[in-house]
Amino acid sequence: xxxxxxxxxxxxxxxxxxxxxxxxxxxxxxxxxxxxxxxxxxxxxxxxxxxxxxxxxxxxxxxxxxxxxxxxxxxxxxxxxxxxxxxxxxxxxxxxxxxxxxxxxxxxxxxxxxxxxxxxxxxxxxxxxxxxxxxxxxxxxxxxxxxxxxxxxxxxxxxxxxxxxxxxxxxxxxxxxxxxxxxxxxxxxxxxxxxxxxxxxxxxxxxxxxxxxxxxxxxxxxxxxxxx
Length: 228
Prior knowledge:
Elements lengths: L10 E3 L2 E6 L2 E6 L1 E4 L4 E5 L6 E6 L4 E7 L2 E9 L2 E6 L3 H29 L11 E9 L4 E10 L2 E5 L9 E4 L4 E7 L2 E8 L10 E4 L3 H17 L2
């Protein structure tokens, strides 16, 4: 697992995760990555896509005692329970530190973003990008033109550039971005949530020209890089 400072690098490693198969509890090795977006991603292998994503600031983590495993960390929210076991005590302590730093870092970002929600469209300092964008409603393919500000891992939406506060905010934690196509609209991209239970949970945006489209994709890519 990487032990470099969390602000500069993601943490990753191969602990074991408890799973169930036919009612039997099993431990299997997982490729686990904790990113600067405050999410824990676990994979069946290093090359595979994530099997699941845990948004750490919304979960509670603690040390756990298991009869047949040492160095176990429990991550919970309501009825959702995840158990991870480190190889040894040293790795166990490092993972606890990583989880603490991930939660703290993301909480600071969210607190700053809450402050930005009350600011006007032009008052948010040093945004990654801002400009007009078309937000599409996939049922009927209707579009609403909005002024959008991209800051940290948040998108702030305004009806007009002169608005005194945002009317809608989207936290991009765990989202992925991809170019897409929609009938009757050009220069579209989609924001895909970490757990897509319904097709209409995907957010699709269109741009009025290719320059704007390219800038949104580039800046969105910067956002994923900074917080990944």
